[in-house]
Design goal:
Layout: H1 2-28, H2 35-38, H3 44-51, H4 58-61, H5 64-84, H6 92-119, H7 124-150
Keywords: Membrane, Transmembrane, Transmembrane helix
Protein name: Transmembrane protein
Transmembrane segments: 58-80, 92-111, 131-149
């Protein structure tokens, strides 16, 4: 149990760092002038949600609940990993690819399809870039979880 929670916390931390490096640093920018908000092709509706319509997303003004939420998601993913890993081929890379692929397809691909594409009308080329960001996030979290879970106890 402790190992699973530790794996989840490290996975959640990896998710937070990857999100910081992709969406915050590159996509939205520290000053709100990242290419996802300044692209002339970007949906005005998406820009308004992130910059104008109050209340702004929590991650913009009060990120602590989102950071904690990502840690909790990491713990949840670690428990899912613990339950399905015995059926998967052994090896760090094989298991990381499966866990990362599972979270990417079941969570992030669905999110991009249902919200930015469906609700905001975001252009496909920006969604494609965001999907690359989400892949980095999913596989960073997966690598951290698998690394902890597959380590042998001393």
């Amino acid at each position: 149990m402790k190992k699973t929670v530790a794996a989840g916390l490290l996975g959640g931390a990896a998710m937070n760092v990857a999100m910081l490096l992709t969406f915050r640093t590159l996509g939205f920018g520290w000053d709100g002038k990242g290419f996802l908000l300044t692209s002339p092709a970007q949906s005005h509706k998406l820009i308004a949600v992130w910059t104008e319509i109050e209340p702004l997303p929590l991650v913009v003004n009060t990120p602590v609940p989102i950071i904690v939420g990502m840690l909790l998601f990491g713990i949840g993913h670690a428990f899912i990993y613990r339950s399905v890993a015995p059926a998967w081929p052994s090896g760090f890379l094989a298991r990381t690819m499966r866990l990362g692929g599972m979270t990417f397809f079941m969570t992030y691909l669905f999110w991009e399809f249902f919200t930015p594409f469906n609700q905001y009308g975001e252009p496909l080329h920006l969604i494609a870039i965001e999907l690359v960001f989400w892949a980095v996030i999913a596989f960073a979290e997966a690598a951290a979880i698998v690394w902890v879970m597959e380590r042998r106890s001393a």
